[in-house]
Amino acid sequence: MLRVLAVDDEVPALEEMAYLLQRDPRVGDVATAGDATSAMRLVSDLVAAGDHLDALFLDIHMPGPSGIDLARFTSALAHPPEVVFVTAHEDFAVTAFELKALDYLLKPLREERLADTLGRLARVRGHRPEENRVAVELAGRVRFIPRTDVFYAEAQGDYVRLRTAEGSYLIRSTLGALEREWDGAGFVRIHRSVLVAARHVCELHFDGSRARVKVGEELLPVSRRQTREVRDQFIRRISGDPGVS
């Protein structure tokens, strides 16, 4: 699991950033600091204890040393963490990438954009989730459901609805971001607004040029554009093609 430090001098922004980081199942520990000086002290204490961080999520404009100063400080470490800048200003993008920042995110922070960054971070740091779980919010609680329980995902505006045997859950994401994050996990795009889990498809129905897939007790339409690709993918799965995940 990833260990990260979020740094921002504005309390609401820091709390929002920490909350979004904690919602991602790839993230384990989230430490916070309200300024760069406190962050430098925390990082130094971790290094002295033989511990480490995977990444810093930094604001740039802060009282005292800036986020740029903090990034330069950590770059001198024997095992520096990755750096992700989270700022309302576009002016420092060139400087950020000169410092080899992993990413440069603009405020307000969007969860789907953060998910893309965390995916890159996990790959760079060689982490894999202990469990492939999805965080869903229910009446003020965050529940983690196994990704293998998801029958299909359907786009609904700025959200995606996940359908399982137990019910459905809304998560704040886009279907495109989810498709990239779940690449290789056995989900097939059957429509511009639907990703279906191949493991839960029990039947394919064809009526002329139209197709539908049966998932649980539901029949989901396949778009005309996707029909041939969906048919070919499932035929390869049935035939045991090793190139199909």
TrEMBL record:
Signal peptide per UniProt: none
Domain Response regulatory: residue ranges: 3-122
GO molecular function: DNA binding; phosphorelay response regulator activity
Source organism (scientific name): Spinactinospora alkalitolerans
Alphabetic keyword roster: DNA-binding, Phosphoprotein
Listed PANTHER family: STAGE 0 SPORULATION PROTEIN A HOMOLOG (PTHR37299:SF1), TRANSCRIPTIONAL REGULATOR-RELATED (PTHR37299)
Positions carrying 4-aspartylphosphate: D59
Protein name in UniProt: DNA-binding LytR/AlgR family response regulator
InterPro entries for this protein: CheY-like_superfamily, LytR-like, LytTR_DNA-bd_dom, Sig_transdc_resp-reg_receiver
Occurrences of domain HTH LytTR-type (ranges): 134-236
